[in-house]
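In the laboratory, one determines a bound structure by crystallizing the protein with its ligand and collecting diffraction data. In a computational setting the workflow is compressed into a single prediction: the sequence and the ligand go in, and a structural description comes out. We illustrate the idea with zinc ion.
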Amino acid sequence: MKIPGMPTCKEVFEHRYDMNELGFMKKMMIMMHMTICKNCQHFQATMHTLEHKMKDSMKKNTSSADQSEIDSLKKRIKEQINN
Ligand SMILES: [Zn+2]
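The predicted complex, in structure-token form:
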């Protein structure tokens, strides 16, 4: 299903931190995309886990093992998004 004006997964990914600066229509389109896109739903769940992990490891004064684990996870997500 293709809807005109619907952003791609990549666009959604790129706007994840500046959603509030987007226009109403664009924001709606991104939200609509995330509602119907399994990719982005999966991605969001992963990001959520990742952010928790990062906060946790910051509290614990990050070991380098944790950091590389997070980096490889981030890389995996990026690859998924770019496909
Ligand atoms: Zn998507």
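The pocket of zinc ion is lined by residues 9, 12, 33, 37, 39-40 (CB under 6 Å). Keep in mind that any predicted model is a hypothesis to be tested, not a measurement.
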